[in-house]
Automatic annotation (TrEMBL):
It comes from Eubacterium ventriosum. PANTHER family: HTH-TYPE TRANSCRIPTIONAL REPRESSOR YTRA. The keyword Thylakoid does not apply. The keyword Transcription regulation applies. GO terms for molecular function: DNA binding; DNA-binding transcription factor activity. This is GntR family transcriptional regulator.
Length: 123
């Protein structure tokens, strides 16, 4: 997990995004214990309050579940919640930008779909 101190994205959001990435990649499993704010703060060299803010963002989203007096766990349906949110926010934004750029460059819908399909098949 890395933090970009020069990014325009707040550090606590980067922390939340990194935890979500760890869940999507399988590094953190659904229903398992999540990193504590102190572990995150030490590893990332950030203030524990900043780490807590990132964790609390995921608690508000329902991705992490707080258990009073115990470690936090990853929600049982975290992957589907993260995927759904990212699909609607990030992927749609990227698609919008790609379509706008394609129209500026006079790339037809068919050409764009062919390019996307080619790139998709490479990965």
């Amino acid at each position: 997990m890395k933090i970009d101190e020069n990014s325009m994205i707040p550090i606590y959001v980067q922390i939340a995004d990194s935890i979500e990435d760890d869940i999507l990649s399988g590094k953190l499993k659904e229903n398992d214990t999540c990193y504590s704010q102190l572990v995150l703060a030490k590893e990332l060299k950030v203030n524990p309050a900043t780490a807590a803010k990132g964790i609390n963002l995921l608690v508000r989203r329902g991705i992490l579940i707080k258990h009073r007096g115990q470690a936090m766990t990853v929600a049982g349906d975290a992957i589907s919640m993260i995927s759904e949110r990212k699909r609607h926010s990030e992927v749609e934004q990227i698609a919008e930008q790609l379509i706008k750029l394609s129209k500026k460059l006079s790339i037809t819908k068919e050409e764009l779909l062919k390019l996307i399909a080619e790139q998709y098949d490479k990965k």
